[in-house]
TrEMBL record:
It comes from the Bacteria. Signal peptide: none annotated. It is found in: Cell membrane. It is a multi-pass membrane protein. Keywords: Cell membrane, Membrane, Transmembrane, Transmembrane helix. The chain crosses the membrane at residues 29-53, 65-84. This is Putative membrane protein YeaQ/YmgE (Transglycosylase-associated protein family). One of its GO terms (cellular component) is plasma membrane. InterPro entries: Transgly_assoc. Belongs to the UPF0410 family.
Amino acid sequence: MLGLIVTIIVVGLIAGALARLIVPGRQSMSIAMTVVLGIVGSLVGGFLGYVLFHKDSQDGFLQPSGLIGSVIGAVIVLLLWTRFGERGASRRV
């Protein structure tokens, strides 16, 4: 169980960091938020992968395609965050 949690955190950090490198612009996020971005991106990427290709974790937990899906999901989440998160922040000021 502890190994699974550590794996999720490490994959989340890698996916979140790669997403922040891919998306242009400055994102003011902490390392913890980068990990959360990667974890949420992994969930989004896993869901999209299941919907499109009908494969899930029964085919193997840690796969290169899952890592790529995690990065793609994190990019989608980050683009949505920068698009809608900034708009909400500017209204509050």
